[in-house]
């Protein structure tokens, strides 16, 4: 099996160049072909010698995966299906807004975390994606050149695959890569505490945390992760970082009818987040099979939002996108949130 070049740094590409008898500077050239010109084959790297390309191709390939299906919503949202790990599929969802085109990317096939409201969690775990798999979601879609933002909010828990996600973020934000500002990248997590610390230390990108319930015992009913890393600890860690400037933290709160939508829950959230520069996104739940809770009414959601606002917490009700193709960022896979 050939090694994939996509996701490699210029330094790693330089080592590969030397290994196959190309000059050291070919590493930089390869990075340009991969990340600026976004070629799909080594044969297209035409400023490398023909013989060099042939030797390179014996052991390496670009490794960009092409989508096998795409569905388009009436509102322009597009859901792409990518094959990964020989037998699994993941989705990437492109959400167009006025000035923006946001890509919701997957980082794992399935997920180990087992959140009860999530269709991905129900599928079990079918392997990590590597950086080439994740970057393919950016490079192989029709809107590749027009993307403005990304959220790691598709299938999988990105901090459970931090090495590949970190490498992807490096390609997105490095000068030799796509040179995106970290402000264009948001990682969404349920709170994998040790990796969350690494994420906060090692990147400057935004953070979204799937909170869903301020009370640990009740949160644990739907989110087993709570047993390992309590939301209280997660918020305590986040408080140690500065979110008053460019970097932002938000909390995703899917509102389930009569489970987490009472005034007591709103007060619990206010207590948990008091004084933290953040935003709470209230997300309408889309009913899934064999799950006991339903969708909260619009009036209940508004009352919940208003109570948060009165308590000093910035809160918004987020609109769902692409509902006709079940593409509301991960909801086709049943997970975190609509944008
Ligand atoms: Fe995994 Fe996220 Fe689904 Fe939880 S909500 S099971 S972390 S994909």
Structural class: alpha/beta
Strand order of the largest sheet: 3-4-5-6-9-10-11-12-13-14
What is the 3D form?
elongated
Low-confidence segments, ≥5 residues, pLDDT <50? Answer: 328-339
Describe this structure in words.
With 339 residues, this protein is of the alpha/beta class. It folds into two domains: 3-61, DNA polymerase, domain 1; 69-325, Aldolase class I (TIM Barrel, Alpha-Beta Barrel). 32% of the residues lie in helices and 20% in strands. The chain is built from twelve helices and 14 strands. Strands 3-4-5-6-9-10-11-12-13-14 form a ten-stranded mixed sheet, covered by helices on one side. The protein starts with a strand and ends in a 21-residue tail after the last strand. The site of iron/sulfur cluster has 13 residues, from helix 4. Iron/sulfur cluster binds at residues 111, 113-115, 118, 120-121, 155-157, 190, 335-336.
Q: TL;DR of this structure?
A:
The chain has helices at residues 10-19, 26-36, 50-59, 119-123, 131-139, 162-173, 193-202, 216-222, 225-228, 231-238, 263-273, 298-310; strands at residues 3-4, 60-61, 69-72, 78-84, 88-96, 101-104, 108-110, 125-128, 149-152, 185-189, 206-210, 249-255, 279-284, 314-318.
């Amino acid at each position: 099996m050939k090694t994939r070049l996509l996701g490699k740094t210029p330094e790693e590409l330089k080592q590969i160049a030397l290994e196959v008898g190309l000059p050291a500077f070919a590493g930089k050239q390869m990075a340009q072909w991969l990340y600026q010109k976004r070629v799909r084959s080594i044969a297209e790297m035409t400023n490398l010698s023909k013989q060099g390309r042939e030797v390179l191709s014996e052991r390496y390939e670009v490794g960009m995966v092409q989508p096998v299906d795409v569905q388009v919503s009436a509102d322009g949202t597009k859901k792409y299906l990518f094959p990964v790990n020989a037998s699994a599929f993941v989705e990437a969802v492109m959400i167009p807004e006025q000035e923006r085109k946001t890509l919701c990317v997957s980082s794992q096939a399935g997920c180990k975390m087992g959140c009860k409201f999530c269709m991905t969690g129900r599928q079990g775990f079918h392997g990590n994606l590597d950086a080439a798999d994740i970057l393919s979601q950016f490079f192989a879609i029709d809107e590749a050149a027009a993307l403005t933002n990304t959220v790691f909010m598709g299938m999988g828990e990105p901090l459970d695959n931090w090495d590949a996600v970190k490498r992807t973020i490096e390609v997105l934000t490095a000068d030799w890569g796509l040179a995106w500002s970290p402000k264009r990248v948001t990682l969404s997590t349920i709170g994998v505490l040790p990796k969350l610390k690494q994420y906060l230390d090692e990147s400057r990108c935004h953070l979204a945390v799937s909170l869903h319930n301020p009370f640990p015992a009740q949160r644990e009913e739907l989110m087993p992760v709570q047993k390992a890393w309590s939301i209280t600890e997660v918020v305590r860690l986040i408080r140690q970082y500065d979110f008053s400037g460019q970097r932002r933290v938000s909390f995703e709160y899917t509102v389930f009818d009569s489970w987490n939508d009472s005034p007591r829950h709103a007060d619990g959230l206010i207590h948990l987040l008091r004084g933290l520069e953040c935003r709470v996104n209230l997300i309408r739940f889309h009913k899934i099979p064999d799950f006991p809770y339903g969708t909260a009414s619009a009036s209940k959601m508004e009352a919940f939002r208003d109570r948060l606002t009165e308590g000093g917490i910035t809160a918004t009700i987020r609109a769902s996108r692409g509902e006709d193709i079940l593409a509301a960022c991960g909801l086709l896979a049943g997970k975190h949130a609509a944008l």
